Amino acid sequence: MKKVVLSWSSGKDSAWALHVLRSEPGVEVIGLLTTLNGAFDRVAMHAVRRELLRRQAESVGLPLLTVDLPWPCPNEAYEQLMEKACADMKAMGAEAVAFGDLYLEDVRAYRVKQLAPTGLEPIFPLWGRPTDALAREMIAGGQRARVTCVDPKKLTRDFAGREFDLALLNDLPPGADPCGENGEFHSFVYESPVLRWPVRIQSGEVVERDGFIFADVLPAD
Questions:
Q1: CA 73, 93, 52 angle in degrees (round to 5)?
Q2: Domains in the chain: ranges and CATH
Q3: Tens digit of each residue's pLDDT (9 = 90 or more) over 178-218
Q4: Strands 144-150 and 185-191, bridge-based pairing
């Protein structure tokens, strides 16, 4: 049984990657790894609050390893922190790290290069799937997500805070990737086949910061 840690962004692709991995024979996912912006205490780029990430991991039922990145984060600092994270994963018994990447060759090549000295095998369970079909598969499979970050150079502001659903897919402009693989948007999954119970959320404010539009998501207690 190959023991795998999944790179967990809190978004739809990593959640679906877990769903796929759990159906593969000979694979055991033993943990989730998430990078956070230490200055804002939120998931990097997705801007999801740490508390929601914690609740999500509890629902998944896997231990959560977090890496707090400085802000701004020089590349050398990032690589040093990830080197330590790799050592921690190996100490857990991990043999591989899985990623929810879909088709960006440069991103894949970077991950392969960074893992090469560690002895951890990179795995890409969603790689090469047509993204329109994949997005619809997620929605049909019962996955529910909220858009938490939008690149206003690629999508209009009103996409921030929307549900990731068929209506959103139909409203995407020509050239926008249905899974947001080119950075069009990022998301937070609150209901999924990999969650034992839904993470209850409510909408927060929408703000523009550092060239992106962020739609805050709050725990609904």
A1: 50
A2: 2-123 (3.40.50.620), 131-219 (no CATH)
A3: 999 999 999 999 999 999 999 999 999 999 999 999 999 99
A4: antiparallel
